[in-house]
Amino acid sequence: MDDELARLRERRLQELVAAQDAPSGAEVLIATAANLEALARTWPYLVVDCWAPWCGPCRRVGPVVEALAAEFSGKVAFAKLNTDEHPQAAGRYGISAIPTLLLFRSGALAGQITGAYPIDPMRAEIVRIFQLKREG
């Protein structure tokens, strides 16, 4: 009975995640411990910004993530994960410092970026890890 309930919950969570529209413009999704893996399976490319409200460098990375979300709109999905509210997710991915960006390709962790970097190095690392073609 517990296994069946867990399967039903997982299927419903996947349905809810799939029902969300793909991020457009600077829209950034909210990741939680409960939906992170489903989000990673939903989009071919997902960048998750792991942050906390008290973290100064995280506040500097936030606008960079939003700008990259707008720039990569339609190609890469972006989400934010509050590590204070979801420490189990942070522990699952071995996050020991924030800000950390987790980069998922086809549901699997493909890389991570730890630290507060300017937009150009972050963009270059996302392109490199996801093996995206540069436009223009």
Could you explain the architecture of this structure?
With 136 residues, this protein is of the alpha/beta class. The protein has a single domain (2-130), classed as Glutaredoxin (3-Layer(aba) Sandwich), CATH 3.40.30.10. Helices cover 43% and strands 21% of the residues. It is built from 5 helices and 5 strands, in the order αβαβαβαββα. It has helices at residues 2-19, 36-42, 56-71, 87-92, 119-130; strands spanning 29-31, 45-51, 77-82, 100-105, 108-114. A 5-stranded mixed sheet has the order 1-3-2-4-5, sandwiched between helices. Strand 2 (45-51), helix 3 and strand 3 form a beta-alpha-beta unit. The model is unreliable at 19-25 (pLDDT under 50).
- The helix content, as a percent range, equals 40-55%
Structural class: alpha/beta
Mean pLDDT: 86
The spatial strand order of the largest sheet comes to 1-3-2-4-5
Judging from the principal axes of the Cα atoms, what is the shape? Answer: globular
Q: What's the end-to-end separation, in Å?
A: 55 Å
CATH topology: Glutaredoxin
* Helical segment count: 5
Summarize the structure.
With 136 residues, this protein is an alpha/beta fold.
